[in-house]
Amino acid sequence: MPNATVPCQYRTGRTLGSGTYAIVKEAIHIKTGKYYACKVINKKLMEGREHMVRNEIAVLKRISSGNRNVVTLHDYFETAHNLYLCFDLCTGGELFDRICAKGNYYEADAAALVRTIFTAVAYIHAGGIVHRDLKPENLLFRTPAEDADIMIADFGLSRVMEGGVGGDKLSLLTEICGTPGYMAPEIFKKTGHGKPVDVWAMGVITYFLLAGYTPFDRESQQAEMEAIIAGDYKFEPHEYWANVTPTAREFIQACLTIDPDKRPTAAECVEHKWLASATPHFVPDPESPTGGPTDLLPHVKKAFNAKGLWRKAAFSIRALNRMTVLAGTGYTFSRDHAEAQKLRENVAVYKEESEKEKMEDASITHQHESDPSSPHTPHSTHSRNASNVKTGEGEPDTLT
């Protein structure tokens, strides 16, 4: 029996961003006027890979609304051409852009951010979820306000895993996925991975927050992968890390334990003295008359800006590499490969088609019925009370 269609209760706003296989647009709920970020996925592009969207919905239904620092999925539906996922609208920008815009930045600021994010990761893990793509670009602020919540976004690579915090050995994941500089050794080695990969990624993020660059930065992805597998990193240059306490470096080393079985859990990381201590950890500023903390911002901004051009150059090829993995090719393409060019063209065409559709003119179908008894299940547009709609936003698709 075919699904009934109903008028869409959203209208299309501006385009917020573009990812590998999706664009992200503003969606304005017509009755309430509230804004959301809507991931728009062309159905042609997802043929044979519908499980990816089903998986993302399954993940978000488990954890949405349960933690203020995890983005919420508010609605999902489809039209004749596209799939739509509506999330919280986070307008405060990305984590590192926010840091670079500050007047000063101390080790205690980094610790507070890491504590908040790790607490949310522990919540995700307790719900049987592994994120698998934690990185600064997927950490967004809800609003521009100084005290705005930081949000973990983009659960497109996440998976449901059972078997406790570490994940059942029988259900360990083996595919290579993520963003290379933040991926754990066991992902590259294909020995099976689970929740510990998120702890490794948080170790990389913490290093990045304290220095402005990642520990495994290399000239090529091959060299980067080899460094990750070997755990080959240093706290250098000295002038950067002289301003960071041994306690912070010890915390990073614990997160970057090569053996996932010996790596601390997210919950254990939250209890580490660098995060749990009531007294802030800092290196005194030798120029401060009161012995106050050293400002990390000058070095952090210098390192971050130096890597900016390289990151932009690597961006497009990483996006393409992920697309080929999703397509099941089993290998990645060089920039000049004929099939890569064809794939790029198809993705561009499909995303352009998605861009043209106006939600307010479309009829929608809900393939996934909501469960009213579950507090984490998004409401269907055609059956929900408009007063229950929450202001929200989401995340551009992950690029690798």
TrEMBL record:
Q: Please note every region of biased composition (Basic and acidic residues).
A: 351-371
The record, for CDD domains, names: STKc_CAMK
Which residues lie within the region annotated Disordered? 351-400
A Pfam family of this chain:
Pkinase
Domain of life per record:
Eukaryota
* Residue ranges occupied by any Protein kinase domain in the UniProt entry: 10-275
One MF term in GO for this entry?
A: protein serine/threonine kinase activity
What keywords sit in the KW lines?
ATP-binding, Kinase, Nucleotide-binding, Serine/threonine-protein kinase, Transferase
Q: Which residues does the record give as ATP binding sites?
A: K39
Q: Does this entry carry the keyword Transferase?
A: yes
The keyword Nucleotide-binding is annotated on this UniProt entry = yes
Q: Which family does it belong to?
A: Belongs to the protein kinase superfamily.
> Could you identify this protein by its name?
Pkinase-domain-containing protein
Native organism: Gymnopus androsaceus JB14
